Please model this.
Amino acid sequence: MTSTTPRAASRAGHRDGRVTAGHRAGLGLRAGRLGAVLAAVTVTGLTATGLTVAGGALTAGVAVAGPVGWRAATAPVRAATPAVPAVPAGMPSGIEDLAPYVRQVACDPAPKPGTLALGRLLTSTYPGTAYVVEHDCGADPIASEHQDGRALDWILSARSSVQAAQAQAFLGWLFASDAGGRAFASARRLGVMYVIWNDRIWGAWAPLDGWAKYSTCASHPEPAADTVCHRNQLHVSLSWDGALGHDSFWSRTVSRPDYGPCRPRDLNWAPAYATANPRPCPDYPALAVPKGAGAVLSGLVKYSGATVGAGDGGAVVSAVQRGLGVPADGQFGAFTADALTAFQRRHSLTVSGTVDAGTWRALLAVHAVKLPVEATTPVPANPLTRYATTVLRYDARGAAVLALQKALGVSASGWFGPKTLAAVRALQTRAKLPVTGVVDTATWKALGA
Model:
C-alpha cells in the first residue's frame, strides 16, 4: 500500500468533476451501519429538546440502541456561545512537533485509548453530539485510519448553525497558539494528522497551507453529498502516539514519533500494533490479485496479513473461512478455530489459533493460481566448469589440459607446452589478470568456466 496523503487521495475516485459511487462508499460512513444516523443529523438537525444518543442511531430527542463504537451524550444542546475543550493541568513545558503522516496499514479497527479519549472530550464539551470510530477492514478504498482505530468521525452537521459554531469553536481551539506562542498547540499535543470538515481538509504535513478544497465537494452542495464531503461529520485522524494516548495531552509527557506496525512486502496488511516503532516503515505497492484468481484467492489477497482470531467478525473472517473450506458466516467461532488449528498443524505452522503472517502465506500458497509449465530448452553445461578449481602449470597433461587448449584455440594435444603457455599468458594480459602462465580459478573464469 502506498502512503499517499489524504489530500492527494481525496482526488481519487472522481471523473469529470463528479463524486463517484466508489468514492462515496470509501469516504462516507457505511450505509448499513450509519446511514440512518447521518441522515437524521443532516435532515433534522437539532430540535428544541436537543439531540440525544444512547449508543445507537441519532434521532432528534430519541434514544435508541445501536452498534458498538458509539459513545453517548444525553444532555440537550442549548443555543449559547460554544465552549472549547479544557486543557488538562500539568502540561509539560515541551511540546511535540506536528504529527507526521502515517497511513493506516493494520487491520485492527478496535478504538484505541487516545481516540476514545478524544471522542469523550468532544461529547463532554459539546453535549448532544456523538462520535464513531470503527470501520470494517477493507471497506474503504481510501485510507482513513478508522481501520486501525486511529480516527473518529464527530457527528454534527454544518447545516445546523449551532453545530457549525461548535465545530468552529473546536477547530479554533485545536489550531490556536499556546501561551508560549507555539502554533497548533492542541493539535500537536493530541497527535492530529489531519482534519476533514465541510468540503475542506487540513493536514499537519503542510500546516501553513491552511484549509484546502476536499475532492470535488465545492461543486456538489447538494445534501446527497454531505457524507462524502464531511458536512455531517468532522473527521479527525491521529498519529499512533495520539491514538494510543501517549502524547502529552493525555500522558503529560512529550512523546517521540511512533510509526506503528509495518506491512510486509508480500501481504496487504500489517499485524496489529504490538510495540513502539521509531522508524518510518518501508513503502511497498499493494499486493495485487493474480490473473486468473478465483473468489477465494481474491479474498485472501485482499485481507492478507490481517491479525484475525476468536471473536472477530466481518468480511475478513469470511475470507479466512473460505480459505479454510468452512461455511463463511463471518463470525470467528469455535468451528472456525478448530479448522484453523488443524490447518496450522497440517502445514507445520505455530498452532496459535490466530491467523498470523505465516498462516496467511500458507493459505495463499494453497490457493495460488496454478500456471501451466512451459517447456524449456535445456542449457548445455559448460565443459570448463568442472575444472574451475583445477590448477594447471607448464608440462601438465590430461583431460583438463585438453579442455584448456580447446578453449584457447590452440592445438589440442593434451600437453601443456610452449604454445599453450603463450596462449595462457596472452589471455591473462587481455583479462587484466596477473600474467603468471599458471591456470588458476580466475583464469578459468576468464575462459567462461
